[in-house]
Write a structure and sequence with these properties.
Length: 465
């Protein structure tokens, strides 16, 4: 009690008024009483700043938080000891703003700047008790801060819709939900940072983006793991990923993105991935691009990194390991730089392969490809497969213990394979060869490599030295 009173005293900031303690408006926090109307009363009649003391607050409908008068809103729980238990469909909290501009200061109206800037949710627990309950929904909100939250057992944890700007999500646990952890759902959003969060065991992805226009997204320093149906008995598997980006809908684009210094791992799932970025086969004027995926540990899915219809992506300095199909699959993409990654595996039941299909203008350099297992490799994918590609530069890589081949290329043109080491160190040799090049091709080049194993080249591939 003394701690609660001290915290309430410390928060007497807004116009010398105390934050609106929901218990002062009739909420009980006993976990049994329906506190919905009492909390709504605090929203409509209070000073705009909701404080939840320690307790369990049962609600049976969404708490709407319209921005405007009486000023920016804060929703604060007492040191993480206040829990909202949502017993209905829809979000526990829906925050509604009016910002129709951009991140440019000149696009803000005076009213939005004065009354809606920096709304926040902090130090609160939200739990779902209805199959269609969500956690928090943001609509038309500018500069929101979501910090120190635990959102669990809902459908979607944090959902952004329509239009939002300058969003920060940090130090949150979005954990064991039946939908997506953080869902950017049909949103126009520029400037969003997701950092230092634990986004795990969410059935439809840790971070999921669909039907959206996104710019300036930073995903940094998070633990994003096990986001599939494995921990949800009775619910179906759906193709998903720990970070799932779908721009196949008309008008959807996701550009200017960094994924840096995360652990992104999972148990494998049907058509699952750790990172999946996909565009429609028809393509758009703005396919997913201007991405940097750097310094992450990524592993243990069906396909660990899956890029489809992308352009201008740098994949650098990652440890990518132990797939059931491919460590990296690149399809119908261009201008992809794959540099200084370690592709490996840690269990005989997994694979290592990297595959590029129907892609152009790609660079694969200074990577380590290593498949250490000694048995049963005849049916595994080769370490590096290049199929129906053009203008590829494969330089300075080390490919160890591949099977059936280190590099396996088919029906590709203008490919240079230079300064690579391709060898097998197993006592029991299982590789068929170091390099195989098949199919029709033009102006291909291979030189200055160290090769231990057979080299098979079709004459029609047109490979020179």
């Amino acid at each position: 009690m003394e701690i609660r009173l001290a915290l309430a005293s410390a928060l007497r900031l807004c116009g010398n008024r105390a934050m609106s303690d929901v218990r002062d408006f009739g909420a009980s926090g006993d976990g049994a009483t329906d506190d919905t109307e009492a909390i709504r009363h605090a929203v409509s009649e209070g000073d705009g700043h909701l404080f939840f003391p320690k307790g369990n607050y049962r609600i049976s409908g969404t708490i709407e938080l319209p921005l405007g008068a009486p000023g920016p809103r804060t929703v604060l729980g007492e040191s993480g000891n206040a829990s909202i238990h949502m017993h209905a469909a829809g979000p526990a909290f829906r925050m509604l703003g009016h910002h129709e501009g951009t991140g440019d200061p000149g696009s803000w109206t005076p009213e939005v700047w004065a009354n809606e800037r920096l709304p926040s949710f902090r130090h609160l627990v939200i739990e779902g008790h209805h199959p269609k309950a969500d956690g928090i929904e943001l609509d038309g909100v500018a500069q929101p801060l979501l910090e120190g939250l635990l959102v669990r057992r809902v459908h979607h944890g944090i959902r952004l819709v329509r239009r939002n700007r300058n969003v920060i999500v940090s130090h949150c646990h979005v954990y064991h939900n039946t939908g997506a952890g953080i869902f950017l759902d049909g949103v126009n959003l520029h400037q969003i940072n997701i950092s230092a969060c634990h986004l795990s065991y969410n059935r439809l992805g840790g971070i999921r983006i669909e039907r959206s226009e996104i710019r300036n997204l930073q995903i940094t320093g998070n633990d994003i793991e096990y986001n599939n149906a494995r921990s949800h008995p009775g619910l179906t598997d759906e193709p998903t990923a720990d970070i799932y980006v779908d721009t196949t809908a008309p008008g959807a684009t996701v550009n200017e993105v960094t994924i840096t210094s995360n652990t992104i791992q999972a148990t494998h799932s049907p058509q699952g991935a750790n990172i999946r970025i996909k565009e429609s086969l028809e393509g758009t004027d703005r396919p997913p691009g201007l991405w940097s995926i750097t310094g992450n540990v990524i592993g243990s899915q069906e396909v660990n990194v899956h890029l489809s219809g992308c352009y201008g992506i740098v994949l650098s300095g990652n440890t990518i390991y132990s797939c059931t199909k491919r460590n990296l699959l690149v399809e119908d993409s261009r201008l992809i730089n794959i540099t200084s990654n370690n592709f490996r595996r840690h269990s005989p039941k997994y694979g290592t392969g990297v595959r590029l299909e129907r892609s152009t203008d790609c660079l694969i350099s200074s990577c380590q490809f290593n498949d250490e297992a000694t048995n049963g490799q005849e049916n595994k994918a080769s370490l590096l497969e290049v199929d129906s590609c053009q203008r590829m530069n494969i330089n300075g890589n080390q490919l160890l213990d591949g099977a059936p081949y280190g590099i396996d290329m088919n029906a590709s043109s203008d490919v240079r394979i230079t300064n690579c080491m391709i060898t097998e160190q197993r006592e029991k040799k299982v590789a068929k060869g170091a390099v195989r090049i098949t199919g029709l091709g033009e102006r291909n080049h291979m030189s200055s490599n160290t090769l231990l194993g057979a080299v098979e080249i079709d004459e029609s591939a047109n490979v020179g030295e």
